[in-house]
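Entry:
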Amino acid sequence: MSAMLRSLRIRNLALVEELSWELPDGFTAVTGETGAGKSIIIGALKFLLGERADRGVVRSGAPSAGIEAVFVLGDTSEIDSLLEERGVDLCQDGELILKRSIATEGSSRQFINGSACNLSLLKELGTLLVDLHGPHDHQSLFSRHEQTLLLDRYTDALALRKSYLECRMAVNQARREIEELENSSGGLDRITRLQEEVEEISSAKLSNDEEESLNNRYKAASNSRRLIELSAAVVSRLEDEERGAGLAVAEAARLLRDLGRLDDRASEYQESLEKIMEGLDTLISELRDYAEEIEVDAGELQLLEDRVNLIGTLRRKYGPSLPEVIARGVESAAQLERLSSLSELQEAARKKLATAVEQLTLSAAMLGEKRRKGAVQLAATVARELASLGFRQAGFEISLELQSEPGPDGAELAEFLFAPNPGEPVQPLRAIASSGEISRVMLALKTALAEQDRIPLLVFDEIDANVGGEIASKVADKMRQLGLRHQVLCITHLPQVAAAATSQFMVVKSVEKGRTETTLNPVTGAERISEIARMLGGVSESARAHALSLLAEAPMVASKES
């Protein structure tokens, strides 16, 4: 076999103080009295493969329980790839070593090849190593996801399923990319708002130092009438014929000329006054020019007022000062440029999504086509296996229900339909009430899928419950048939199943030094005959003879099947 569980060691778990088990390949049966502790072995495997453990499972008086398993793998590449991804030591010499410690105080610890790990990794490894079925584990068979996966395994469609899932991942990734781009850009509204900001600020043609000059011009223009009146009044006072300054200066000049004729020293005063007269004439001329200029600016008052109002609006919207308004415009323009590139990225992402959806649709169609062909073949194969298990006229079909949109299992979901009795319509498998019926359906499926199932270890915990008579022999045949391709471990109460096993171990509960203890022992030869006789109902000679006949038939079953 390409892989198998080589050894299992259990320490201080429930009634087990110390148990070391070297497992053979092929089909192994575990038997024993009811309550002897057979379930402890299954529990140990479950804990080792990631199931949460209550502290109460630790043997009384012990600080912790320990479980260790060694798997021998022919090809470690898939396991090693998973371990490397999780930062765990790889397999050495084809061996995978799992350890679990369950403490009464503190937290549990688990290890893979000596590296600490979490429970989720143990669970993930468990799906690759062990397929465990117990009285309550048939629920997985009721899951449409599991049914679809079984169909894919049978039709050798796992590669197509993987390709489909990769396409679906690409679609989801493209959708997330578009969403992230939209979130980062703020959407179309933000782009529109930025465009309006940039247009409003840039069209104003602002400059950092224009505000003071503009305010002064506007103040002057808004007071133009008063300025004209005042400048005219000044000119009038200076030129008034009765009491103007010009008249007074002219009279003073005449008097100074008279003074100069009388005294030469007064001539310098006359020169000073003449300069004053010239300055007065200049002042009057400038005031007239000033008044004329004010009249021209008054015509621009509306334009100045509009400009002042515009700058005030921009300051209220984009910044308390004009330089900050200008800076806001520059920043918004830069953001708009970045968002323009985001728009291009969004368009590229939308094209990428369209391509991914197209690939997903194609991949789903290819997977669905293979499923439709395989569903008919698998249903016929399972029906034949069920017939050999006592359902001679049972109906078994596989329907494929198209989903509203492709999901994690594809564009359709499988539904296993079963009618155990002739004349009855097929119903979903989950509607079946009998555990004996569902056990045989499980066994039929496992037999049909034996060649496709890559999981090395199949564990059945009393899967043969509620089965007896001729059907028990058929179940035994199927178990041994599975053992030809897998390592099979079956906890059973059926002597037919135990006799069909290539190896048998017996769980024994005893009292040692006042304490109950469970042990596991191989049974061969006379011990095996006695154990199967016990399972048949006693240790009478007839029971032993029946046990011998069952054991004698087992090799013939193997030779026929090989």
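The longest helix spans residues 322-388.
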